[in-house]
Amino acid sequence: MNIILLGPPGAGKGTQARILVEERNMMQLSTGDMLREAKDSGSEMGQIVAGVMARGELVTDEIVIGLIREKLCSDTQGGVIFDGFPRTLGQADALGKLLEENGKQIDAVVEMQVDDAALIARITARSTCGACGEVYNDQTKPWPSNGKCINCGSTDIKRRADDNEDSLKQRLMEYYKKTSPLLGYYYARGDLKSVNGLGEIDQVKSEITAALK
Length: 213
Ligand code: ADP
Ligand code: ZN
What we know:
It contains nine helices and eight strands. It is α/β, with parallel strands linked by helices.
């Protein structure tokens, strides 16, 4: 089963993708993570995208489609979760073609609905473990007081450069302008399922499980 998680920044796509990876042996393809890796590696492409990402703008379709194309060549037996991709209609078309070429298809698109106030609160409180990617929230799931990640014991707490209010406003604007049209695109194809992303992590997980049945 190949699925897309769709929703604004902070909707909880990454958190739910990690759960699906653990429970269903699926493979998470997060273009945001791939771009951050490219940035950290200091590659030429990484240097180009760093400024774009910090401002909260979208990286070009060409770059992200190239990243996804590379990954789809590998073994994707357990199915793929697309997290943060596609983000434009051009990317959605390209993904459809790429999958078709590989004899695959999208089986479901899960929209995670969250209101703007909640997004801003979540994102400005967000941190992650630099070693394993565990996601924390200053209010609801604070970094342990012993300084060690609950999942892997690392002390490498990270905050994203674009998790500040200015970039976030830009990211939300990009979402409404360029990504939200995908809801209509997938609805028209009969693939769209919507879940309430405002609940507890477990509750959202159950809704996604039900949506995928
Ligand atoms: P979030 O959904 O929380 O904004 P991501 O980690 O998915 O975060 O993406 C972070 C940034 O990476 C985006 O603001 C954008 O600059 C870039 N990016 C990620 N995926 C894409 C994509 N599919 N197309 C264009 N830019 C992307
Ligand atoms: Zn960790």
